Fold HTH psq-type domain-containing protein.
Amino acid sequence: ALYFNVINHRATNTTERRIFLHPTTSFFQRVILSPPLSKMPLSQENRIQMAIAAYKNQKVKSILKAAEIFGVPEATLRARLKGRQPRAETRANGHRLKAIEEETLIQRLLEADKRGFPIRPEFLRSMAQILLRERLQ
């Protein structure tokens, strides 16, 4: 239990022993196992980005080893290396308007507001419906 608490940074009592790593421990294992600079753990996205950088810079020889060292799913790491975008950066399904159409509406809304003529929600909705109708014809 002591080993688990120290490795997983749950040791709150300063009398608990620290574990000194063997000199042959790799740099990345020391980074992962060392105490964090802040109390906040790295998010999975940050660990994936670090694993990608380590693999691309040839600090780690295999994808499997990079996934193990940084504690991320191997399938996720492989997919990211092939170009898949993180879920937070992808556009959700079910949007009626395309991204460019939404951007156009936003620009019109901001321009009208800047001139002192804010657009009412009903008018904005009708503008969106016109865009949809034009695209579907």
About this structure: The first helix runs from residue 2 to 7. The CA atoms of residues 109 and 115 lie 10 Å apart. Helices lie at 2-7, 27-33, 44-56, 63-70, 74-81, 99-114, 121-136. The radius of gyration is 25 Å.
